[in-house]
Specification:
Blueprint lengths: L18 H19 L4 E2 L1 H8 L3 H9 L11 E2 H12 L5 E6 L3 H12 L4 E8 L8 E2 L2 E5 L3 H8 L3 E4 L3 H13 L4 E4 L12 E4 L2 H20 L3
Parallel strand pairs: 3-4, 3-7, 4-6, 7-8, 8-9
Antiparallel strand pairs: 1-2, 5-6
Helix pairs in contact: 1-4, 2-3
Length: 227
C-alpha cells in the first residue's frame, strides 16, 4: 500500500494514525451497525470488546485518534458513534466500486458487495471474454474494458476489485489506475505495483489460509505434548 496517500480521519496529521487502527475501524462499524439494527442505544467499551475481540482499552485508544466520543461511566451512543465512524472512514454516502474479472471469483465478490455490503455500490463489472460480455449479474452489467474510463468518470468510482488471473492482473491494475481509480483490492495471488497516491491491498487467500493452518498445527503439537 502506498505511503504517499493520506489516511482518512479528522486528525489534521493523518499520517500519525497507525494503519492497524484504520483496519480495525470497519470492525467497530459493523458491530455498531448490528447494535443499531437491534435498537441498542448505549454501548460500553467493554461490551464492544466482547463483540469485536479487541480490548476495551484498545477500542478507546483507537477512537481517541479521531476525537472524544462517549461519556465516562455511561458509554457510547451507538447510533451517534456509528455515524461518526461513517464520516471518518468516508462512507457517509455509498462508494462506487467496479469489479474487474467476471469469472467465478469476480461474480462471488460482486454478489457479496451487492447483497451484504450496504456502503458500496457496484456500478459495473469488466471482462475481456466475449462469453460474459453484456451479461448482467444482479443487474450489474459486464462491460468491455474499453469502457472503464467512461464508467469511472460517470460514477466517480473510488475503488476497484481485481479478480483476474495472475498473468493479467498487472495489466488490469494499470488499466484501473489509468482510468482514475485510486483504491485497488487485488485478489490475484501475486502483488501488483501502483504509482504513489494509489492504495493497493493484495489479498492472497492461499497465504492467509496457510497462516491460519500454522495455528492449527501448533495447537495440535501442544495437545500432543500435553501442554
Amino acid at each position: 500500500m502506498s505511503k504517499n496517500k493520506k489516511l482518512p480521519g479528522n486528525d489534521p496529521d493523518h499520517k500519525r494514525i497507525p494503519r492497524s487502527v484504520i483496519r480495525r475501524l470497519p470492525v467497530y462499524l459493523r458491530t455498531l451497525d448490528n447494535l443499531v439494527k437491534n435498537d441498542v442505544e448505549v454501548v460500553t467499551s467493554m461490551e464492544l470488546s466482547e463483540r469485536t475481540g479487541f480490548t476495551a482499552e484498545q477500542i478507546r485508544k483507537d477512537l481517541g485518534h479521531f476525537g472524544t466520543f462517549g461519556t465516562r461511566g455511561t458509554g457510547y451512543h451507538a447510533e451517534a458513534l456509528r455515524n461518526e465512524l461513517l464520516k471518518i472512514i468516508g462512507l457517509y454516502e455509498k462508494t462506487a466500486v467496479i469489479v474487474v474479472g467476471a469469472g467465478h471469483l469476480g461474480t462471488a465478490l460482486l454478489r457479496y458487495n451487492v447483497n451484504r455490503n450496504p456502503y458500496t455500490n457496484v456500478v459495473a463489472a469488466f471482462d475481456t471474454s466475449p462469453d460474459v460480455m453484456g451479461q448482467r449479474i444482479l443487474d450489474v452489467e459486464v462491460l468491455p474494458v474499453s469502457r472503464m474510463p467512461e464508467v469511472v468518470r460517470k460514477h466517480n468510482v473510488k475503488a476497484a476489485i481485481l479478480a483476474v488471473p495472475s498473468e493479467n492482473v498487472q495489466a488490469a491494475a494499470d488499466q484501473v489506475v489509468k482510468s482514475g481509480v485510486e483504491v485497488i483490492f487485488n485478489f490475484a495471488p501475486i502483488w501488483v505495483q501502483a504509482p504513489p497516491g494509489v492504495f493497493v491491498h493484495n489479498a492472497d487467500l492461499s497465504i492467509e489460509l496457510q497462516s491460519l493452518i500454522y495455528y492449527a498445527t501448533r495447537e495440535e503439537a501442544f495437545r500432543s505434548k500435553g501442554v
